[in-house]
Amino acid sequence: MSTLLEVSGVSVTFDGFRAINNLSFSIAEGELRAVIGPNGAGKTTFMDIVTGKTRPDSGRVLFGEKSVDLLRLSEARIARAGVGRKFQRPTVFEDQTVAENLMLALRAHRAPWRVLFWRPKPADHARIAELAAEVGLSDQLPRKAGELSHGQKQWLEIGMLLAQEPRLLLVDEPAAGMTGPEREHTTDLLVSLARSRAVVVVEHDMEFVRRLACKVTVLHEGSVLAEGSLDHVTANPAVIDVYLGRG
Amino acid sequence: MNLFRKHPSLPVFLGLLAAFVLAVTLMSEAAGAGLVSTSFVKTLGKTLCLCLIALAMDLVWGYTGILSLGHFAFFGLGGYMIGMWLMYARTETIVEASLASGALPPTPQEVQDAIATQIFGVVGASDLPAIWSLAGSLPAQLALVVLVPAALAAVFGWLAFRARVTGVYLSILTQAMTLALALWLFQNDSGLRGNNGLSGLQNIPGLEQHGQDLVSLWFFWASALALGLGYLGAQWLVSGKFGSVIRAIRDDEARVRFLGYPVEGFKLFVFVLTAVVAGLAGALYYPQAGIVNPAELAPIASIYLAVWVAIGGRGRLYGAVIGAAFVSLVSTWFTGGNAPDIPLGGYTLHWVDWWQVLLGLSFVAVTLYAPRGIGGLFDLLAGLRAPNRRGAPLGPDQGALQEKEADA
């Protein structure tokens, strides 16, 4: 498989603290990858860099077959290039309905002038219904997103990411604060997402990562400590040291 | 037509506006029973213009979350642009009439010099400044009514939004903008007659044969038409996906960026559009007011605008209109000396002095106890209530809708 995202030699310092230290790794087209690591390992900062929220001091982040340098683009341009992001806390537009939220995310022109004259066609409504069914929110379409439960908001956000049709999806701790059945539904959603696009999941919870059954990258102090299957990395003495030695 | 069905408030609003125009027309001195004085027709016409700029303010603040405290600058600029033509053209007729008695017909240069002396004598100048070079042409000045506010808003907005200035800092910047503009206009050598401003604007060149009673009624109609069209346009704007995007920007602009929308572009679009609407409202307002001077652009005017929208209820179009109409009419009543003074033993309460205090208190009261403003009364009637979010606003941004402002 060809490489979709290549991070090479990226470093970033916040007030003297090296959050990311010469980080290099790559994601292939259509791959599902879990990124784990203790608190402060740089997992979220890595996502911030790829999505354009944080500018690194050095390094390169190349995306797609044309190897576009993401570090030169604004957040919105990166999103339009095909990078979607799901935040740790569910971030949906709470004052708007589930249907409106999905409609906002639906792949279409993003410039003000085009948005102004854009009107939904029957195909768009059908797509919204289809997405809502996929994430299990079919009966919630006219409700305001703010009224949904925590788990439902997470699914709505995943639905919005699906609507956006990104080529690479970055997901930050999707299982945090979820109940048992909600977690299972979320795992299924992520696995089915990864069938058509690359997905990077940042997670704390080892049990959740095991269920994803994919390649794992362990971050520690801003760089890659180990990479491979979950059994392979958990057998690595350096990983055990980091996880158990420091609690 | 779909728009009317989806938003029942739209036909109601337009219907009430039409009924109001008809009633005032039938009671006016020019075309009806004479129950409403010409000066009150002017007050009502001006109020409609204020409703129009309040609509613009609601779009930029209530819907997009940008608390601009500088939109009255655009309103004033619109007034100045039309005022230049009004003053120039009227002076021209007067000058031509007086020069016609001479032995030789005056040259165009002589006419222009005489106009300049007439207009700028008050600030001790007799040359026509370069910015007046288009003042003789109505189409040119009408174009400037749109272009000047748009250009100022575009340059200011581009600089501010690109630097991602938000919240309180942006509000302060917009205050600085309107203050700087007012101070510049106050200077005699800026070419707009300093603190005298432009006056005599109620005399419309070419319409001298009609009395003020008729002219003021025409302006009242024009103001009502502009408000009706502005309301229709604003409703169309906020009903589609564009409205969805700007409300999303108000509540959580970072999230909108990650959806791929150019947030700065949207903000700039709304800022410039509302500046143009404000300019047009000003161009209709000042011929009815008769005079425009730099005091009109004082920072406080733009703050009043925010107060009107807050009292009416931000984030709903009719709220802004109701707020502007209610507060400005009540203000006219109190400051006009119509309200009876209240003797309090040793001290007599004069409303002319105490009205500002009352307005300030009601603003605080609305913010604390009725965040949906007067417009919220309709929600009470319709049985709509705010969602129970345990005090959490609807998004992380400063301009985000607060719990009590939202609909469940």
From TrEMBL, chain A:
PANTHER family: CONSERVED COMPONENT OF ABC TRANSPORTER FOR NATURAL AMINO ACIDS-RELATED (PTHR45772), HIGH-AFFINITY BRANCHED-CHAIN AMINO ACID TRANSPORT ATP-BINDING PROTEIN (PTHR45772:SF8). PROSITE patterns: ABC_TRANSPORTER_2. InterPro entries: AAA+_ATPase (IPR003593), ABC_AA/LPS_Transport (IPR051120), ABC_transporter-like_ATP-bd (IPR003439), ABC_transptr_urea_ATP-bd_UrtD (IPR017781), BCA_ABC_TP_C (IPR032823), P-loop_NTPase (IPR027417). Signal peptide: none annotated. CDD domains: ABC_Mj1267_LivG_branched. GO terms for cellular component: plasma membrane. Coiled coil: none annotated. Residues 5-246 form the ABC transporter domain. It comes from the Bacteria. This is Urea transport system ATP-binding protein.
From TrEMBL, chain B:
One of its GO terms (molecular function) is branched-chain amino acid transmembrane transporter activity. Keywords: Cell membrane, Membrane, Transmembrane, Transmembrane helix. It is a multi-pass membrane protein. The chain crosses the membrane at residues 43-62, 69-88, 142-161, 168-186, 218-238, 259-285, 291-310, 317-334, 354-371. CDD domains: TM_PBP1_LivM_like. It holds the Pfam family BPD_transp_2. GO terms for cellular component: plasma membrane. This is Amino acid/amide ABC transporter membrane protein 2, HAAT family. It comes from Phaeovulum vinaykumarii.
